[in-house]
Amino acid sequence: MSDSPLSSESPDLCLASGSPRRQALLTRMGVRFVTVAQDVDEQVLADESPEVFVIRLALEKARAGLSGRPTPDTPVLGADTAVVIDDEILGKPQDADAARAMLERLAGRTHRVLTGVALVDGEQEATRLSLSSVSLRMIDPAEIEAYWASGEPADKAGAYAIQGLGGVFVEQLEGSYSGVMGLPLFETHDLLGEFGIAYQRHWATEAR
Ligand SMILES: Cc1cn([C@H]2C[C@H](O)[C@@H](COP(=O)(O)OP(=O)(O)OP(=O)(O)O)O2)c(=O)[nH]c1=O
């Protein structure tokens, strides 16, 4: 378990995620949180739709974080992001060849990005789904090589990051920028509201 920059007082929730993007987005909301470890198998099940897959994984990550929370009543947030093209789920690339293949496939086309978010507290469980459409421009092979060499694609679903260098490939986005980045702010706010987590009370005392 590690502390967020805002967690000198008791946290609003635990974030069951090792993703620095999710930590940054939750920090941006002004939520006070601690991170807890989770190690969930990210295999897609037979005949599982992308919608069901991201919600299932978000829930499994959140549930896996329950044992690491600082107090028995701290809620745990989990999320999962998938890039979907031709009804196929693209996860994080295993190596340069996989990243190259993903980017060649995504370039010049429109794909979907789904992020599932789940909040659990040991009794109550709730989920939200964020759906976006992203169109990437054509990307030439030299650009793909240079992009892989930057190190950015390695830990990103679909082998690109809209918030990073990969932003230069994004011609159009319909949906949620934060959802594509890994934690949709609108849906996360909504979930926190359902659990009565009044995190916005911190806004007045935060340096911005
Ligand atoms: C499409 C896209 C994905 N991503 C990232 C978000 C997620 O971190 C990652 C998808 O992998 P996930 O399996 O959703 O998450 P993770 O393994 O990084 O983190 P954790 O399970 O510990 O919460 O891809 C971007 O950062 N930018 C993008 O534009």
From TrEMBL:
Keyword Hydrolase in annotation: yes
Molecular-function GO terms, alphabetical: hydrolase activity
Site feature: Important for substrate specificity: 21, 81, 163
Keyword Hydrolase: yes
Pfam families: Maf
Catalytic reaction(s) noted: dTTP + H2O = dTMP + diphosphate + H(+); UTP + H2O = UMP + diphosphate + H(+)
CDD domains assigned to the protein according to its UniProt record, in alphabetical order: Maf
InterPro entries: ITPase-like_fam, Maf-like
Cofactor(s) annotated in UniProt: a divalent metal cation
Keyword vocabulary terms for this entry: Cytoplasm, Hydrolase, Nucleotide metabolism
Active site: 80 (proton acceptor)
Entry's family note: Belongs to the Maf family. YhdE subfamily.
PANTHER family reported for this sequence: BIFUNCTIONAL DTTP/UTP PYROPHOSPHATASE/METHYLTRANSFERASE PROTEIN-RELATED (PTHR43213), BIFUNCTIONAL DTTP_UTP PYROPHOSPHATASE_METHYLTRANSFERASE PROTEIN-RELATED (PTHR43213:SF5)
Function: Nucleoside triphosphate pyrophosphatase that hydrolyzes dTTP and UTP. May have a dual role in cell division arrest and in preventing the incorporation of modified nucleotides into cellular nucleic acids.
Entry protein name: dTTP/UTP pyrophosphatase
